[in-house]
Design brief:
Elements (H helix, E strand, L loop, with lengths): L23 H12 L11 E5 L3 E6 L13 H20 L2 E7 L7 E9 L31 H7 L7 E7 L3 H19 L2 H10 E2 L9 E2 L7 H4 L2 H7 L2 H4 L1 H10 L3 E7 L4 H20 L2 E5 L2 H4 L3 H9 L4 E10 L19
Parallel strand pairs: 6-7
Antiparallel strand pairs: 1-2, 2-4, 3-4, 5-8, 8-10, 9-10
Helix pairs in contact: 1-2, 2-10, 4-9, 4-12, 5-7
Amino acid sequence: MKKIKQNYRAWLVQKNEFPKDGVLRDQLKFFVNYAVLAPSGHNTQPWKFQIKNTGIDLFVDMLRALPKSDVNHRQTLISLGCALENFLIAADYFGFGCEVEYFPTSQQEIVARVECSKRVAVGKKGDHLLDYIPKRWTDRHQYSKTPIEEPIIHSFKNFVFEDIQIDFVGWDQKEKMNVIADKAVEAGIVAMHSNGFRDELSQYVKPSSTDSTVGMPGHTLGVPALMSFFLPTMIKRFNMAQVNKMKDTSLLKKHTPVFGIISTKDDTHRAWVKAGQCFERIFLEAGRYGLHVAPLAAIVQTGEYYKDLQKILRISMRPQVFFRMGYSKRQPVHSPRIMGWEVVGK
């Protein structure tokens, strides 16, 4: 059996290790082991947790925020929404009911306060989203041309939260999809024009052999091991989005069956967190159907490209999350991870 490096061991969480006879604090800490497996921009994992008497506080860890590419912390809070949703899914599986209060104090670093109470026996039977959390991974590669069945697409809309809209654009709307693809590629190029953006990104792109617990190793980006050592320097010096324009355009137009867009009525911190929760639910549900997913932030984060999305989709809500989805036989390639116990405050 292949040895798992320390910076990937968080993915080995086992539900049978839940301390069912332990104290509440230990049970809540166990749920954090699932929360930290959420996706985040550049895989910075910008979260930390504080265990309270009957719940947890979820904080932004500003040391792992992205001041150049995420000035207003939109992507950071979407990431925390994903982590929050994983926590709630884990709590549900082990028989806990949770009440969430968003931004409970004037201290904006506290994103959510979660109160938990035991309601049923531990361990739900049957297929549960908890089982898909350790299997989740971001697949940035080509997807097959197999269409996604309409009932599956429709089922994702069951995960809509209040004041949230989900739109899907697939190959049955090819012209619209091509326009969106062009805008997504253009937004990526514009984002990479910024020296600050490239410098920040280069700090989180790692060689495939990295021991770092954050960032994106070359193998997660489809880069050969040897080249991965040079990739950070290349990103820092060149607009790689411009260099890869034709390749990226082909990826979106020819190897992506469906685009998904999550939009919110309000463009607030609370809305960003809830958009992240919705996205994580869809991400995990996609795994249940054998679908692969990859978010692309530039079209909703850079300049006013989100307005182009609004016009194309004919919506008034604010697009917050843009992602591609499809089938693939590619084997999971996880990114490094900080262990749950390391992000829980004393």
